[in-house]
Amino acid sequence: MPHLLRTSCKNTFDLWLKIMKLMIPIAVCVKLATEMGVVDWLGNMLAPLMGYLGLPGIMGMVWAVTAVTNLWSGAMLFVSLATTVDITAAQATIVGIMMLMAHSLPLELAVVRKCGIKPLFALSLRVLSALILGYVFHWIFDYGSLLQEPVHIALRLTEPTDTSWQSWMLGQIESYILMWPFLFMLVLLLDYIKTHQAMPQVTQWLTPYLDIMGISARCAPITFLGMTLGLVYGGAMLIQAIEDSELDEDEAHRAVLSMNLLHAVIEDTCIIWLIGGSFFWIFILRLVFTLLVMRLLHLWIQTHHRVAWYFIKLKPLKSSR
Q: Which of 222, 204, 215 is nearest to 251 (CA)?
């Protein structure tokens, strides 16, 4: 056990440094973009599109903030704007699913790129998924007269009054420090599973779901952690697994594609549920949609191997496997 703790501690520190090198530049760029009004401009650009989805134009600002920053920021903005316009439960669910499919894009696309996937492909996949699900939900809710009651918002947050750079830097440092013990527990769990040969039990439970998406059993534990806890953690662990020769690149690419669409399902789903989104639509239908998209991608890769990977991977394959 002491050896396991030492090994996990070292692995955690190496992984934490890699995540910091990725997160810090992205966080600074996002802060600068926010200060320069880029997010406001993007929100205004999206306002006309919101009308096609049955949403007030101001919801474009919510989606823009969520896409550039994170779900919590988007949720807080939604709560503050919901008092100025009439929002139904259907509209909260529509904007909620769009927030779930396309959020924290600067950071998460950087993670995807680090894992060998073209950011433009990953971005297109997430934005198109958000728009498709938003439109489908709008059509279903409108046609079936579903969720037309006023939204019930359980989330009550107060936005920070101090928006200075100093306050922002202190908040960033605090979050980076708090990330280490959380990351250590994940690494320790994976190391324990490997050491005690518990991998077969984990993969057996996940295999039916992951088989549909074309993800190998060796990727099952990391994919599961990424889907439940977050793309940043899952992506970083995939990179480490590739460097340790535990996975080949194709396996990792398929896994990160699935996590690109579906990650942090526990926390993220709770956030959208708290701002009034319907749990069934934002959770169950998101799972089904991800299965469908990943199945189509898997079939595309199988039937048009070189062409598919050319569009998906940063470097085209030199030969078919």
A: 215
In degrees, rounded to 5, the angle at the alpha carbon of residue 238 between the alpha carbons of residues 233 and 244 is: 130
What are the CA-CA distances from residue 155 to residues 162, 186, 189, 270 (Å)?
A: 21, 28, 32, 10
C-alpha distance from residue 242 to each of 38, 139, 309 (Å): 36, 43, 18
Query: What is the structure's pLDDT at 207?
Result: 78
Q: Is the pLDDT of residue 97 over 80?
A: yes
Alpha-carbon gap, residue 220 to 296, rounded angstroms: 19
Please tell me the least confidently modeled range out of 41-45, 157-161, 185-189, 298-302.
157-161
How far, in Å, CA of 287 to CA of 269, rounded?
A: 11
C-alpha of 310 from chain center: 23
What does the block give as tokens for 205?
């439970």
Among 304, 226, 309, 301, residue whose Cα is nearest residue 265: 226
pLDDT tens digits for 243-282? 777 788 888 899 999 999 999 898 899 999 999 999 999 9
